[in-house]
Automatic annotation (TrEMBL):
SUPFAM superfamilies: Protein kinase-like (PK-like). InterPro entries: Kinase-like_dom_sf, NH2Glyco/OHUrea_AB-resist_kin. This is Aminoglycoside phosphotransferase family protein.
């Protein structure tokens, strides 16, 4: 018998994210999500095994199998819609990323190949994980096509820059750093010439072990733009480890150089995007009330 909406619970991690991001709309979005999830179990002939706990921060994840052949899969439901994720996964067609099996984009529902959700790339030692990550990114950076549906990098940066300005007063002591980040992003966009499909949120937690390939990327927030932007989020990975290293400023610069060299990119452009994205992450954490993360991100930004 298919699972009923009342049997599907929303993990608290997801509920917290929806409340923080959607404000007054959150209760309605959370209330209708189990019904939408259950509807697609029946529509696609799926049996729910369990809901992933603590699960993702932005999606309801269910481990499922098909009724007819017992093939394992994952059903993913996004409260505010899946945006362009399905289009990116379809374009990659399993090359470097999780395979899309079916999709209802209007409902924010994706049916995905099942990976090993409990084995992320960060389970490897840092040096090995960074090497694997760099190689995987190069498989994802493809031409987007003439009529692609993906958000231009300039639009995403404009959106984040507006938020940075609006949140600037949350950290008055970091105002010079915020100003530098905004100025740097503007200069980078002015000099950008590349048009690649980007993952948009690539880090060790968004890469999982798989059966048909050692590692595959999941949960993209796709963009079209220059590759250095994608690499910049990876620079900030394992930030607590970086902060605890002897001479974190030098360690950060070495990480940038090593990653940029691995994919043949200009380390100055990687550093610039890491500066902008670090400042953005710091003020976003402050706005969400997470002061510890905010202070670490802003400290990292200062190293750059």
């Amino acid at each position: 018998m298919p699972a009923q909406p009342g049997q599907i619970t929303i993990p608290e991690r997801l509920a917290g994210t929806v409340r923080a991001e959607q404000g007054e709309a959150a209760p309605a979005l959370l209330a209708e999500l189990p019904g939408r999830f259950a509807e697609h179990l029946g529509r696609w002939g799926l049996v729910l095994e369990r809901i992933a706990e603590p699960g993702g921060r932005s999606s309801l994840i269910g481990y499922v199998h098909r009724e007819d052949d017992l093939a394992p899969a994952v059903l993913k439901a996004t409260p505010a819609g899946s945006d362009q994720e399905h289009a990116a996964l379809r374009q990659w067609a399993g090359r470097g990323a999780v395979l899309l099996l079916d999709a209802d984009p209007a409902a924010g529902i994706l049916l995905l190949e099942r990976l090993h959700g409990d084995i992320p790339l960060r389970s490897l030692a840092e040096a090995k994980a960074m090497l694997e990550a760099a190689g995987l990114l190069q498989r994802l950076w493809v031409e987007p096509g003439a009529s692609h549906p993906f958000t231009p990098l300039a639009d995403r940066v404009a959106e984040r820059a507006e938020l940075l300005r609006a949140r600037r007063d949350l950290a008055p002591e970091a105002a010079p750093l915020i100003d530098e980040a905004l100025e740097t992003a503007g200069a980078l966009l002015a000099g950008a010439t590349e048009q690649h499909l980007l993952h948009g949120d690539f880090h060790h937690g968004k890469v999982l072990a798989a059966d048909r390939s050692p590692w595959l990327a999941v949960s993209p927030r796709p963009l079209v733009g220059e590759r250095a932007y994608d690499l910049a989020r990876l620079v900030r990975d394992r930030l607590d480890t970086l902060a605890g290293s002897p001479g974190p400023r030098g360690a950060t610069r070495r990480r940038i150089t090593q990653l940029a060299d691995a994919v043949d990119l200009d380390p100055d452009r990687v550093r610039g995007w890491a500066l902008f994205r670090g400042a953005d992450a710091g003020l976003a954490a402050l706005a969400a009330g997470d002061r510890a993360t905010a202070e670490l991100c802003l400290e990292f930004t200062g190293w750059l």
